[in-house]
TrEMBL record:
Residues 22-87 form the UDP-3-O-[3-hydroxymyristoyl] glucosamine N-acyltransferase non-repeat region domain. Its EC number is 2.3.1.191. Keywords: Acyltransferase, Lipid A biosynthesis, Lipid biosynthesis, Lipid metabolism, Repeat, Transferase. HAMAP family: LpxD. InterPro entries: Hexapep, LpxD, Trimer_LpxA-like_sf, UDP_GlcNAc_AcTrfase_non-rep. It comes from Motilimonas cestriensis. The lineage of its organism: Bacteria, Pseudomonadati, Pseudomonadota, Gammaproteobacteria, Alteromonadales. This is UDP-3-O-acylglucosamine N-acyltransferase. NCBIfam families: lipid_A_lpxD, PRK00892.1. Catalyzes the N-acylation of UDP-3-O-acylglucosamine using 3-hydroxyacyl-ACP as the acyl donor. Is involved in the biosynthesis of lipid A, a phosphorylated glycolipid that anchors the lipopolysaccharide to the outer membrane of the cell.
Amino acid sequence: MQITLAELAGKIGAKCHGDGTLIINSVASLGQAGPSEIAFFSDAKYLDVLNVSRAGAVILPEQALAAYSGNALVMANPYLGFALAAQVLDTTPAPASSIAPSAVIAPTAQLGVGVCVGANAVIEAGAVIGDNTEIGPGTFIGKEAKIGPYGRIWANVSIYHRVEIGAQCVIQSGAVIGSDGFGNAPDKGRWVKIPQLGTVIIGDRVRIGANTCVDRGALDNTIIADGVVIDNLCQIAHNCEIGENTAIAGAATFAGSLKIGKNCMVGGASVVNGHMEICDNVIITGMGMVMRPIDKPGVYSSGIPLQSNKEWRKTAARTLRIDDMHKRINKLEKQLAAAASSAKE
C-alpha cells in the first residue's frame, strides 16, 4: 500500500504540512518509524522522541508544530488520526477471498453478492449471509443464522442457530456466539438442564475478540447494540444487554441478565454481577468487582493494587482483623463520647 501524504491527509481529515508528495507505505511508532512511515505524537512527555524521530511524517496537534520541523498531518486528535491512517494502510489479508471447494453450504442457505467462504467452513440450512461478507476457514454458521453485509468472520468461529449479526461486524477466531447459557435447575442433588430458547442479537459495527463467548438467552434474547467492542477471552452470559458503543477489555466476565448502558468502559479481568443495571457513561477500572447496580455515571474501582509480597502479607493480615478493629473503634468512640458528656456536666 502506498499513498502520498496529501492524499492521506484528505482521507483522514487532516491538514498537510510539508511535502505532500511524500510517499507513505505504512504506520509505525514514533521511535521506530522510518522515512516512508507515519507515526503520531499526542503526549508532551514524548517530545524528546519527536525531536529525533526518523518518521517520514507525524500526525500531531497544531500546538506541536512549533517543536517539529518535519512533514506533518495536523489534527486535533492525533490518536484518532493514527487509527484512521492505520485503516487506510492496513495490509491484513481477508479471512477468505473466494468460495473454497471444501466449504459445505446448504442448498437453502442464501449468500449475497461477493460473499467469500474459506476452506472447510459450514453454512447450514436457512442461513442468510449479507453482501461482501467474508467467512474464514473452519467457521460454522448454524441453521437460520443471519449475518449482515460487509462482515469479517475469521477462522474457526462458531455462530449457532438463529443468531442475528448486523452489518460491518468483525468476529475474531475462536469466538462462540449463541452457545447455551448456564441454565440448570436443582433437583435432589442433581442438575436438570434448562434449554436455552432465546438467541443472540448483535447490532451493526460490533467487534468481538478471539475466544470470547456470548451465550444465547434462556427465553428472551442476549442483545449487543451497535458499535460495541469486546476484547478477547470475555464471557457474556445469557440475557445480557450491552448498550451502544460500550467497550469491554480482555477477560471481563458478565453474569446473566446484566443490563449495561451506552458508552461504558469495562476494564480487563473485571467481574460484573447479573440481574442488575449499570447506567450510561460508567467506567469500571481493571479487575473491578461489581456486585451492586450503578445508577450514576463516573469512574468506579475495586481490588487491591499490587504490592511487594512482604507488604501484601501485612495488608492481608490486617484485613483479616478488620472486624475486630471495627468493634474496638466503636467501643472507644462510645467511651470518648461518654467522657465528653461527663466533662460538660
